[in-house]
Amino acid sequence: DQQVKQNSPSLSVQEGRISILNCDYTNSMFDYFLWYKKYPAEGPTFLISISSIKDKNEDGRFTVFLNKSAKHLSLHIVPSQPGDSAVYFCAPRVNSSGSARQLTFGSGTQLTVLP
Amino acid sequence: EPEVTQTPSHQVTQMGQEVILRCVPISNHLYFYWYRQILGQKVEFLVSFYNNEISEKSEIFDDQFSVERPDGSNFTLKIRSTKLEDSAMYFCASSWDLQETQYFGPGTRLLVL
């Protein structure tokens, strides 16, 4: 299932710099996009989301950008902190009426923020 | 802050045995989900549950799997006859509404020998 692709399995960034994590999707029915982060031995933790009617959503150090025509979204973290080191998952869903909205996860990107 | 809890954290079982994984969703949530992640693979949707019935299920969720909300707080996933390939991390999630964010539990690591 390649509906959601995170092509970079890992990313290393210096503390204080910007981290950019990318996600590409193929299913044009996706219209709500979530980012989760996951620490080892824990479940995914919701981070930020964006609806397809927007192209940007910002929450503190985290900003998500959506380019619908390119079917691409990115998560920017600035400034990056060592505590941000985790696996980040892109998880879009289809907002079809009447059905519980399963998330389709990407393979994740391991972010390491170096002190 | 309310959170989803799961028990046990680890479960080792013999192939062919039944296992029940337990979850306590966030108390005012109405929609419940199970996902799993096989080691080295993506997190995959298994099933969603609302109003005491299954809303959606994936191809993975075959007759060996069942879900139940036996009381007002627990949500369980039963695997009737485990196979080696059922070894995975199983995550429970819940949400208040269809539109709302799904919140995940810490997972149960299932190992089938």
Strand order, largest beta sheet of chain A: 1-3-8-7-6
Q: What's the overall average pLDDT of chain B, rounded?
A: 94
Helical stretch tally of chain B: 0
Poorly predicted residue ranges of chain B:
none
Q: Give the distance, in angstroms, between the N- and C-terminal Cα atoms of chain A.
A: 36 Å
Strand coverage percent of chain B: over 45%
The biggest beta sheet of chain A reads:
5 strands, antiparallel
What fraction of the residues of chain A are assigned to beta strands by DSSP? over 45%
Count every helix of chain A, treating DSSP H or I runs of 4 or more residues as helices. Answer: 0
**Which regions of chain A contain 5 or more consecutive residues with pLDDT less than 50?**
none
Biggest interface pair, counts: A-B, 23 and 27 residues
Distance between the termini of chain B: 37 Å
How would you classify the helix and strand content of chain A by structural class?
Answer: mainly beta
Mean pLDDT value of chain A: 92
The coarse overall form of chain B would be globular
Radius of gyration of chain B: 13 Å
**Helix content, binned percent of chain B:** under 10%
Largest sheet of chain B: 7 strands, mixed
Total E-strand runs of chain B: 11
Structural class of chain B: mainly beta
What is the quaternary state of this protein? heterodimer
Report what the structure shows.
The complex is a heterodimer of chains A (115) and B (113). Chain A is an all-beta fold. Helices cover 0% and strands 53% of the residues of chain A. Chain A has no helices and ten strands. In chain A, the strands form two sheets. In chain A, strands 1-3-8-7-6 form a five-stranded antiparallel beta sheet, with no helix packed on it. In chain A, a hairpin with a 2-residue loop joins strand 6 and strand 7. Chain A starts with a strand and ends with a strand. Chain B is mainly beta. Chain B is built from no helices and eleven strands. Chain B has strands at residues 5-7, 10-13, 19-24, 31-37, 43-50, 53-57, 65-68, 75-79, 88-95, 103-104, 108-112. In chain B, the strands form two sheets. In chain B, strands 2, 4, 5, 6, 9, 10 and 11 form a seven-stranded mixed beta sheet that branches. In chain B, a hairpin with a 7-residue loop joins strand 9 (88-95) and strand 10 (103-104). The A-B interface holds A 1, 34, 36, 41-46, 49, 89, 91, 95, 99-108 and B 4, 6, 31, 33, 35, 41-45, 48-50, 55-56, 58, 91, 93, 98-99, 101-107.
